[in-house]
Amino acid sequence: MSTGDTLAEKCGDYYILGDSGYPCLRHLLRPYKNRGQLTRVQRNYNCKLSSVRYKIEHCFSLLKQKFQQLYHVKLRKIDDIVDFIRRCCVLHNLAIDDDFTYEENVEVNLANAIPEVPYNEKEVERDDLDEIRYRNFVANNVL
């Protein structure tokens, strides 16, 4: 992953998944607002996005269970925080590769895992028309 200054530079060929509280950006995929008029493709996109976000939330829960320091990170610089989280992920993956046994007591409440943000007319103004078209392209061609 690139270490550029803009979101596009940082993401490169990857995407950030967000909830409906975020603006629609080319490298930040978020669900369609459900006002009762979604197409089948849009509902499918929202379902897939929600499923992937749930898996990510579950992974974060696993990491926090194993590395409880993640609950109260005392680091202040973003680069240090990113490095700390990355090291936790590496240690987690090494433990999996070595068949390290760990008793998991992870409970994920689905109702709270992916909160739905209420629709707000002002948010539509934040969305760039090109970015909305790109999300439509992803919904129609990738998923």
UniProtKB/TrEMBL annotation:
Q: Pfam families from the entry?
A: DDE_Tnp_4 (PF13359)
> What are its GO cellular component terms?
nucleus
Keywords of this protein's UniProt record, alphabetized?
Hydrolase, Metal-binding, Nuclease, Nucleus
Q: Domain named DDE Tnp4: which ranges? A: 13-93
Molecular function via GO? hydrolase activity; metal ion binding; nuclease activity
Top-rank taxon, per record: Eukaryota
Q: Which InterPro entries match?
A: HARBI1-like, HARBI1_dom
Q: Which cofactor does it need?
A: a divalent metal cation
What is the protein's major site of localization? Answer: nucleus
Record localization: Nucleus
User: Which protein family is it in?
Assistant: Belongs to the HARBI1 family.
PANTHER family for this protein: GH03217P-RELATED, PTHR22930
Q: Identify this protein by name.
A: DDE Tnp4 domain-containing protein
Native organism: Rhamnusium bicolor
Q: What is the lineage of its organism?
A: Eukaryota, Metazoa, Ecdysozoa, Arthropoda, Hexapoda
